[in-house]
Amino acid sequence: MIILGLTGSIGMGKSATAELFREEGVPVYDADAEVHALYAKGGAAVAPVEAAFPGVTVDGAIDRNALRGRVLNDSDAMKTLEQIVHPLAGDAQKQFRDKAHESGAPFIVLDIPLLYEAGGYAYCDYVVVVSAPAEVQRERVLSRPGMTADTFESILARQMPDADKRAKADFIITSAHGFEFARDCVQAIVRLMNRLAEEESDA
After folding, report:
1. Alpha-carbon distance 130 to 44, whole Å?
2. Cα separation, 193 vs 68, whole angstroms
3. Closest-CA residue to 5 (of 163, 136, 119)
């Protein structure tokens, strides 16, 4: 089974591109959704995160805005958070991979925002980077509710520069040309992955 990593900086269109892979019937692991589940009421990360950062829990769930305020500009706090969350998310991802393998899926997509930054690219066979011009990215992000220019810059500071991601990528999908262009790119990648998986199984 081929593992295809999918990543891209904030506001680049990665989540929309992941949905295009789902529409093609490809199993997609959503790292952001998994973290949301870990932070939700009853989630495995709620107790340890609250213990590390008292006061970030509201009604039994992690308040992501409160947590962001505690860790975004504090590298030590961010490291503490990652040491709690990454192993939990890693367990969920392994379960996803195992289930997909058992189902006979020829390939899967791992949708992970910090794929390069956290080293997850090492276990991917190929990586797709979703990109867009900086001005498009900025406009998209600042249109989000509650987003400020300072918060945007703080998030960018934690992410590998887009140019560096593109230089490392096996495939680049530019989201600035609209959904149909992105869909064509996704469909071409799906055809290639299926062919490579078939060749791999025949070898």
Report:
1. 30
2. 37
3. 119
CB atoms within 10 A of CB 153: 10
Given a cut of 80, is residue 192 above it in pLDDT? yes
Provide the CA 57 distance to its chain's centre, in angstroms. Answer: 24
**Is there a binding annotation on residue 13?**
yes
The C-alpha atoms of residue 119 and residue 138 are separated, in whole angstroms, by 26
Establish whether 15 is an annotated binding residue. Answer: yes
Q: What is the CATH number of domain 1-27+107-203?
A: 3.40.50.300
User: Does the annotation flag 55 for ligand binding?
Assistant: no
Kindly list the domain boundaries of the chain, sorted by start residue. Answer: 1-27+107-203, 30-104
Task: Find the helix or strand (DSSP H, E) in which 110 lies.
Answer: strand 107-111
pTM: 0.88
CA 16 – CA 147 distance, rounded (Å): 19
Question: Which DSSP symbol is given to 58?
Answer: E
Please answer whether residues 46 and 62 qualify as being in contact, where contact means their C-beta atoms are separated by less than 8 angstroms: yes
Would you place residue 14 in the very low, low, confident or very high pLDDT band (cuts 50, 70, 90)? very high
Is residue 143 annotated as involved in ligand binding?
no
pLDDT in tens, 175-190: 999 989 999 999 999 9
CA distance 188 to 128: 12
Answer left, alpha or beta for residue 155, where phi above 0 means left and psi between -120 and 50 means alpha. alpha
